[in-house]
Amino acid sequence: MTENVKDNKTNSAKKVQATADEKATVQRYNWVERWTHTFHAIAMLVLLFTGFAIYFRWDFVTFHNARAWHMIAVPVLIVTNWFLVPYGIFSEGYAEGGIKGVVSHFKNGYIFGKDDYLRLKGMILNFFGKQAEYPPFTVYDKKTGHYVTKLHPMFKILIVLEGMCIFLIFITGIVLYKVDWSLLGLPIAEWITWIFNWIGQWFNMNGLELIRWVHLALTYFFVFELIVHVFILEFDPKVFKYWKSIFINGKEDLDGPVVEVVEDAHHK
């Protein structure tokens, strides 16, 4: 009888501790990551709006103004993605464990792996009613005080695609900006056009036609990505905490159904 009482008290204590852990507030994003995401979002929205304004010749904004704002947003997006994002990954990973921490942080946080496949599979099964629970996509290691992963597995796929698309839309944009653009005497735009001329012959298109088509197609991809990005977040019933975390204070309450708190950084 006494042993049963002790066991019950122990179990109750564990439940209380688990509840306390689940309600813990931790730092999800530092100020660099928050500003990076904010600048990225603003630049992307401006580019999409002005890009469509230029293409469809919308009457409520002049071609000159749309083009000017488009060219202002381009360097913001480039600096954000090619400089601030790598800096954020390096600084966050280094704080976790030096150079090894950087590699581990990048691998776990941004590369789609086996665990992400299993989570994504469970999410698809849940969507079609074949699995009761929606798998957690935020995993926090209580022992190290750092995230194992904090991205939805679909985001990890989209991040790779987005990086490739940003590069392609940038180089095609160079030619659309100025067909003879050069840097330090190097005919960059001519080289890009030559490459697309070579590819375009397989589609019965010249280089400039293919460049325009690719640039527009990538624009629609970014619209698709934006919709998916927001839609996935809505799966969490406590979605506002993510908006607050990424745009306001960088903190997250570990109390959502898609959050898992683990004891081992090598959690599988």
Automatic annotation (TrEMBL):
<keyword id="KW-0812">Transmembrane</keyword>
<dbReference type="GO" id="GO:0009055">
    <property type="term" value="F:electron transfer activity"/>
</dbReference>
<keyword id="KW-0472">Membrane</keyword>
<feature type="transmembrane region" description="Helical">
    <location>
        <begin position="157"/>
        <end position="177"/>
    </location>
</feature>
<dbReference type="GO" id="GO:0005886">
    <property type="term" value="C:plasma membrane"/>
</dbReference>
<dbReference type="GO" id="GO:0020037">
    <property type="term" value="F:heme binding"/>
</dbReference>
<dbReference type="GO" id="GO:0022904">
    <property type="term" value="P:respiratory electron transport chain"/>
</dbReference>
<feature type="transmembrane region" description="Helical">
    <location>
        <begin position="68"/>
        <end position="90"/>
    </location>
</feature>
<protein>
    <recommendedName>
        <fullName>Cytochrome B</fullName>
    </recommendedName>
</protein>
<dbReference type="InterPro" id="IPR016174">
    <property type="entry name" value="Di-haem_cyt_TM"/>
</dbReference>
<dbReference type="InterPro" id="IPR051542">
    <property type="entry name" value="Hydrogenase_cytochrome"/>
</dbReference>
<keyword id="KW-1133">Transmembrane helix</keyword>
<feature type="transmembrane region" description="Helical">
    <location>
        <begin position="38"/>
        <end position="56"/>
    </location>
</feature>
<feature type="transmembrane region" description="Helical">
    <location>
        <begin position="210"/>
        <end position="233"/>
    </location>
</feature>
